[in-house]
Amino acid sequence: MTISRRSALAIVAAAPILTPARAAVAAGPGESAQGTEVEAAVDNLTKALLAADGTALDALTLDGLSYGHSSGVVQDKAAFIEALTSGRSKFPSITLSDRSTSVIGDDAIVRHVFTGETVAGGKTSPVHIGVLQVWHRDGGRWRLMARQAFKL
Asked: Range of 67's domain?
């Protein structure tokens, strides 16, 4: 499918005015229920991050996961899970705000602001970043395919 520059610019121009509620409506009939399922998966991922629950993290992510940090570091699934379950990195608190979800067939795009704390190397640091997640419906459940964080 080819998208013209004019169409792409129209999409980019409209993106800031799409609130989460409008984004679900914009996805089409039946998509808002799927959006709710994706939001539940995002919440479950957040709980798994807080608990450093390797089993849950494994179940919520695809084998080909690309997990990008705001520092520029990109991890595969094994490195992402190992960093959390080993205790090298942990999150004492996480709050997600300014959330939006757009479901396109078996894929979903989720954006939010991630605020909290991280502990790495014994040092606690505040976190306030933007996040883009790409989810894929795999065998009837939503699993994280890609995540990229960026500095705000």
From this structure: 28-151
